[in-house]
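agent> call fold_tool(seq_1)
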Amino acid sequence: MLTKSFSQQDNKWRKALIRIKNYEIRNADSIIRLINDPNKRALLLNQINYIEQKQINPPSLDQFETKTSFDKVLIFLTKGDITISNEIPNYSKTFEAYQKALDIALSNSDSLLICFTTRKIIELLYNNRKAKHLFFKYFNIYEKYYIDYSEKATLEFYKATINASIHQREYINDYKKAIVIAKKSKNRFIEGKLYQLLGVNFNYFLKEKDSAEFYYKKANKIFKGAFFQFTQEPIFAINTNLGILYSENNQPDLAFSHFQKAKKHTFPKKNYLNLSKLSSCLFNHYRRIKNYDSAFYYNKQFRIYNDSLKEYQNAIALNKIEIKYETAEKEKENILLKTSLEREEREQQILWISSISLLILGSSIGLLVYKNTKRKQRIAEQEREIQIQKTEKLLKDQELAGIDAMLAGQEKERQRLANDLHDNLGSTLVTLKLHFNHLQNNLDNPKANNLEELYTKTDNLLDEAYQKVRTMAHEKNSGVMANQGLLPAIKNLAKKASNGDGLKIEVQDYGLEERLDNTLEIAIFRMIQELITNIIKHANAKEVHISLTNHDSLLNIIVEDDGKGFNPQVLHKKEGMGLKNIEKRVEHLEGTFEIDTTPGKGTNTIINIPI
């Protein structure tokens, strides 16, 4: 594929679109606000509104000046989003608009636009469970053009889900393989959806309630950490499923608690399916605990929502009938053509009789070809299974390698501490023991000399041993002391690392009035310490800005320098710079780690850690 160059504004649009496809809504919104063109800014903001199920307010699309393929694709995507967001959606027109957008993206070989558009088509087919034979056509396009592991995780999610819906059986291993990819890509939304589906599979296919509960809760933890509207529906589904699970396990209090959490969610008025489902669950719950008044009420609610759902579905069906009427003239032409063809077929019946013998022969040959083809397919399937096993083993080996590296670091730290104890504190304690033995042996000996001096030396050795233990503990915590805390330790580190005119380090903090867990503070301090060390060694920077912001459940850390930067493409090929260790620490804390750097233009390191 040819490498394309883009202007500075183009790069902003593309970066925003990448953030949107990865469900990084807050970061995408920040980038979109910097785009100069108000129309293009509105088109991108509408993509966020569509994900978050908000009202779409596009510019005047008919008067919009389309200068690039990017503009054309976004216009057709917006048209499709409008038709599906109407009170009565028109899925045919949505599909048509999305397909036009995909055709433009394919004609320009633009991988980002191809993947973004293909995924919207797959989501449309998936949400309506229609035309299942089309899925694999778009899966092939997606697989050919996906640009990162986030796209790969999304593709594997839809593949496993569609296969499960077609074959009506569990796909546990497929979901677990997809989770490995989702974690590698840090696509938290898809990871949460995969955990949710694992819970469903364990609950309804394998009947393993404990495993189902475990995966439901893992999914819920991920979705609760993202305060966005588009996570509300999966949270609703998880709470409803947990309520059903606890109700079936005869745990009515837990069941009621989760049903109440589900009840708090608000959906668009047309979402009668979720409302009827919740009413049915509450009806069964109250009936089990013999609260018949409440059971009667929710049974009535269920019937109301269920009737509304049927009316809504009928309205959609009528919409489809109107679309068919638009093509009535073409259908008449088809009927006439069919009549003509039938007449020709009757005239040719005599010829068919003479062809029967040839058909029998052809069928025999076709059967042989079919058997041969099936045999080749079985061989190909076995080869694919072997390749999947190799890939799974490779991913597992990589994970084990990371764990080995972490354990090696811990072992190295233990060895260093053991050496300090032996070489530094050990000699002092040995001398102290000799003095005590001498004092003990001569305690009642009136002829012993210099006992007073020996007492003084022993007391001094005790003080020295205490100071050495205190120094080692101070070095172990690297300044994050119980009476000091993370923020003062970082400011002290910045003060010591700054050297007047050579390097200036500033620290800004927001919302860090209260202490964090000491283990977490030490881990964060270690990461910042490593980043500052890298800047001093490699960046030749003059100014460094460290920002720490507490967003209630998320700690955002930004370390920015004006140094010489580096090429991010060679980052993973290097073993040095300590970035691998930082990435492992962040991954261990279930956070995200991102580096934005360009040679000659400094480096921005962004770390987000749940707290």
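agent> call fold_tool(seq_2)
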Amino acid sequence: MAAGKSSRLTQPRANPSSRWRCGHARLGKPCAAGPDEYGKCQHNAPESLAASCRVEACGSGCSQSANCSALAQARSELGPCFPEKTSWFARQSIAVNAAIFVGGLLLLCMALPEREAVFKPGNLSRKHSQILGNELVSQRCSLCHPGSHPELKGLTQDDLCMRCHDAHMPDAALRSPHDLRRDQLVELLPTQDHLSTVSHVLSAKTACATCHIEHHGHDHDLQAITDRRCQSCHQSQFASFADGHPQFDAYPYRTERRIAFDHAAHQQLHFAKKNESFDCARCHVDSSQTGQVGSVFRSVGFEQACASCHAEPIRASTIGGWAVLQVPSLAPEDVQDPDAGLQDWPQGATFDYEGPITLPMRLLLSVDEGMDRLLAELPPSGQLQDLAASERPRVSRGIAREFRQLVLDVAAGGQAAWQTRLTDLAERRLGRALQSYEQQLVAEMSAGLPPDLFRQIQRGWFQRGGGIASTSAAAEPFQLVSGRQLDDVLLGDDLLEEDAGDDDLLLNSGPQAGELLLDDGTQEPAASSTKNLKFTKLRGADHVSQGGWYLDQTLLAVRYMPRGHADRTLAAWAEFADLVESHSEQQSGRLNRLAGEVPGACTECHLIGKETRYTPRWSNWKSVRRPEKLSLFTKFDHTPHLTLPTLNDCQYCHSFSRENKSTLRQLLDSQPTRGEVCTHLEHEFQPMQRSQCVACHRPGGANDGCTQCHNYHVGNDGFGWSHQE
């Protein structure tokens, strides 16, 4: 029993706070009484002895007096007791002090410029980290977080995002679904039941950080959006692409094609006649380059796709060059009449009212509204002999006088005079100043034109002694330029007498080749230099094989030899003609009748037309050309699909329409409108079906997520391209 008592006496008494303990410094023994709630040792207090004199202190068999005597003796032997902190309380104190120290250190760091590199919730994604790495450390957070700097007060985080992203997706500043305007959203949801939904979405505003969450590491994909997030906004929800996704509506999207190419007719007629296989890759796949949908293109270019069949016909149609200007023929009495002002008209063009008024002549001679009205009296053929007999003299004389003035203007003013006439015509017809691209057309229409040709025309085709009309064709009476004034303009003598004849302009095939063509007439050639010249008959394809301007002495014409397919000068003439004539009600809706006069059969394939929002004029000669980096609702890359054996045959997805059995050639023969041709081409193929894609894109197969095929940032332009009719 005594041993039991001694054991209980030596155990420390538990304290509710567990922060203090008592012990005897001299003996190193624990205090039996222990500390009180304030950390004071109860062993030293006088009242502690009375408090300890209890029966339970030594057991039920101990008397109270014996217990008190034992405690008093123990107290005397052990000496004073001192309170000590427990190990838990010591650790707690160290932790509190450490926290205070770290907090102070953090506050100090936050006052330093490097604070924005130290305090961040996580690493940035790859692209953003590269951008911020070039900024001052003290300014990095302020690029995206307006709350980090007082000077950004009033701005939102989206405003800061658009500082960098406005260039390539400016419509994102709308902060609306897919960067669309209200009217475009209404078009997507046309029923009245959905109008309230559209208003709610627009008023709520979609923040960039709703889908693009940063600080998830260097390899985090900011563009990754889960299907659940996409369908959180769409009312028509479905389980997966294979289960519930809506059927396609006229996909691929329709675009206004500018190449009149009928696939079915070529496959069944042209390729069949030549016993050649109709391989889609021949015209649409170029593995050497990558476009918006991989290595597949609307057209890979003329040389690869078309030249084997069409290069020779184009060359044959331009082998003799294009008669840009041709002296019209007059009746002999016009030359003999001094009041007509045409006494110096070439003798080779004075047999009757004949000759074509070509497209370039109509454009170049239209110097004013009076001349416009005169040229409007010409028949569709442009031939003077097709005019009514009563009108033929008046119209022919007016055209001849203005033609004479044109020759003089270009001989004196060069290419600038040529361009001035065309510019004045276009601005008068369009009622505005020409745009930069239209000015480029005018410049291209006179590219390489040598004014010396017109000086030679003046000296060789027209007699110097007579007068010429210096005013427009319809003006009366005629104001004549004297022979002395004419000499000052022409600065040269007549052409050699030897070059006159019935053949084409003779070119020297020896060392002096081209002297007759380019001679400025300032020196009289010695007789010995021309006496034994060997001349050959001019043929444009031989003598101007690389393209250019030359004279046709037989027909008294200025000709242009194209440089083959895609000749820029011919294209400029065709497009300029369509530009200035498209406003006419008579020409509206017809397939470039005037532009069709340009040789090379350009408009048989190229459906040039007026500029629209999505097909500007610079794309007239392309099959379809979208602006770069244009985002549509749907994206597709042919490259991975063409590796599959099933999809090597393009007709797995692009099958010919069974309903549209008429060929394009039959349609073109009926002189259709441009809209009719484009409608025919747009419905040439059957729309794709969802089942064609579900064969691979399904759970357990290829990726079938929303963003696999759809873009979010579409914008105004992308919406237009995706919904063209």
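agent> summarizing second result for user.
Residues 1-17, 54-63, 464-531, 585-592 have pLDDT under 50 and may be disordered. The CA atoms of residues 295 and 452 lie 48 Å apart.
agent> awaiting next instruction.
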